[in-house]
Amino acid sequence: MYLALSWTVEAKLDLKDRKILFELDKDSRAGLGEIARKVRLSKEVVFHRINRLVSEKVILKFHTVPASYRFGLMAYKVYLRLGNISRRDYGRLINYLKGNDAIFWIGVCKGRWDMMFGIWAKTIEEFFIIHDQVLDKFSKYIHDKELSISRENLQYNRRWFYHDTLNPVEFNFGETQGRIALDEKNQRILDIMADSSRVKLVDIAEQLGVSPKVVAYRIREMEKREIIKGYKVLLNPSRMGFCTCKAFVFFKNIDREKKKHFIEYCKRLPNLINIVITFAPWDMELMFETKTYEEYFGIMDGVKEKFNDIIKIYDSVLISSEPKQRFLSKE
Fold this sequence. Notes:
Layout: H1 15-26, H2 32-39, H3 43-55, E1 59-66, E2 74-82, H4 87-98, E3 103-111, E4 115-121, H5 124-138, E5 142-156, E6 170-174, H6 184-193, H7 201-208, H8 212-224, E7 228-235, E8 243-251, H9 256-266, E9 272-279, E10 284-290, H10 293-306, E11 311-325
Antiparallel strand pairs: 1-7, 2-4, 2-5, 3-4, 3-11, 5-6, 5-9, 8-10, 8-11, 9-10
């Protein structure tokens, strides 16, 4: 299968670059002055380094993470095993998925699955409308498929940038959070910030026809109410010499306390960046960024050995690229 974005030349990153990336990964909306103080550089140097990291495609996007579950949305994911598909038709499939506003994530991979994509939907009927549209158009290339519903999504900052030993920064959102209604202006602010978390207040204000102070107040209120969960960066791991791997974990003899203990252990693994609790044939997904595929297997085999009383098996994929990632549905 075609791996869009196969291994590229590793960018040359010094310690200051990694520290800047570390800070942006915790809060991609952090001001230049705040980052400059933490990495002990001038604001001007930080500004130019960030621009260089963007131009060299180490940073692909600065994005806002809203609490989409609180808007009545559920995250459904579809996993495809493909065959007899030409490079041209493979590109058509990716472009078709990228063009659908309800699809918030695409992963191009190798292993158990060849492609995965996520769909925001308020009802199972709404999900199947989009699901059926994809299958109707590309069914002749689909040899196998599976569906999962994401019950809870836990995201962690990248501590491998320079062996950080502090507690991980966690973005936690899922089905346990209460529903909330958005007014039109907050909806528009989130829509603008979804793909550009570092957008200036004055630019948002101009689009909304209000003052920058009003925009700043609304953003602060959404942060306090946890409508905005945080701000992240979409990075290109291959430009940093890393690969992205996902494990699909099948449990046995599991209960709430054992699961909690398992999550507490896994989230402190420095290469772990994401945990998804799912309703699927598997029970949990773990995403890692490691130097090699072998390093990933070493980590997961160690996890399986430590928790052999609750882990039945695990499957894996290597994710070569994420052509689309957007945490907010365009309604």
